[in-house]
Amino acid sequence: MSDLTPITPNPQINQTTDSASPNEEIKVPDRNAKTRQLLGMKGAASGETSIWKIRLQLMKPITWIPLIWGVVCGAASSGEYTWTLENVLKSAACMLLSGPLLAGYTQTLNEYYDREIDAVNEPYRPIPSGAIPLPQVITQIWVLLITGNLIAIALDLWAGNQYPTITTIAILGSFIAYIYSAPPLKLKQNGWLGGYALGASYIAFPWCTGHALFGELNWKIVVFSVVYSLAGLGIAIVNDFKSVEGDRQFGLKSLPVVFGVQTAAWICVVMIDLFQAAIAGYLIYIHENLYAAILLLLIIPQVTFQDMYFLRDPLKNDVKYQASAQPFLVLGMLVAGIALGHAGV
To answer: Which residue ranges have biased composition labelled Polar residues (predicted)?
Structure first.
C-alpha cells in the first residue's frame, strides 16, 4: 500500500528534470499518515523507529474511545456518581482499565493472531512490517493483561464491592478477547458472533464496569447493556470493510465477505438505528420521555450521514462515516445512561 499522496505536477519542475514527464504524477509524503498509524487507523505510514510508538500502534488508541465512554455511561446509569476528587480518580482508573490496558491487550492480541491477514490488508502495521519482534509482542500482551486485571481487583476493593464484580467482568472480557482472536474458536471467523463479541466489548463490559464502580450492578442494567450491544454490532461491522480482501483470502466469514459489501452496509446501519430506537422505546416504558425524545432526535443526523457516506460507498467512506455519524450514537448512549440513573433502574 502506498504511503504517498499524488499531486498535480508543476510544469516548471518538469522543465528542469530529466526523469519526470509532463503526464507523470509526482508524489509527496502524506503528513497525516504517521498520525493515522499511531492511532491505529487505516491508510497509515510505515517506517516508525521509536519502540514506544510502535507498542502504542499495536494497542490502537483510536479503539479506546468507545470503552472509555462506556465507563462514563455506566457511571451515569448508577445514579450515584458525584463530582468529588475521589470519584474522579476512580473514574480515571476505570478508564485506564477499560481503554489502554484491556482494550490495548485485546488489540495487541488481535494483531498477533492476524499478522498474516494484516500482511495483505495493512502491511504497514508493526508486526507484518517487521518493526517489532514477536517475542516482544507476546510480552506486551501479558503485561497489559496482568496489569489490567490487577487494577480491576483494586477497583473492587476501592468501591467496597462484596462480590468482585469488576474483576469478574475484566476476566470475562479478557477471555472473550482471547477466543475472538485466537484459534481454535476465533470468533471473528464468524461475522455475527465476532461482531457481537466486539459490540459487547465496546458497550456492555465498560458500561457494567462503570455502573459497578459507583452503584450495585443488577440484572436490568446487564440486560440493558447487552441489548445496546446489538447496536454495537453495527459499529463492529464497519471495521470489517477495510479488511475484505484479506478476510476473503484467509476464509474469514465477515459480513461483507458473506453478504457482499452493499448488503453488509445495510445490515450495519439497520442494526445501529433499530436498537437505538428500541432503547428509546424502553425509556418511554419507564416514563423517561424527555430522554427518549432526545435519543430519537440524535438518530436523525446519524441516519443522514449513513445515507450521505456509508451506504453510497462503504469501502471509501467508512472512516468518514465513523467520524461524522458515530458521535451521535455515543451521545445517545450517555443520554440513555443519565435516564437510567434518573429513573433509579
So the answer is: 1-22
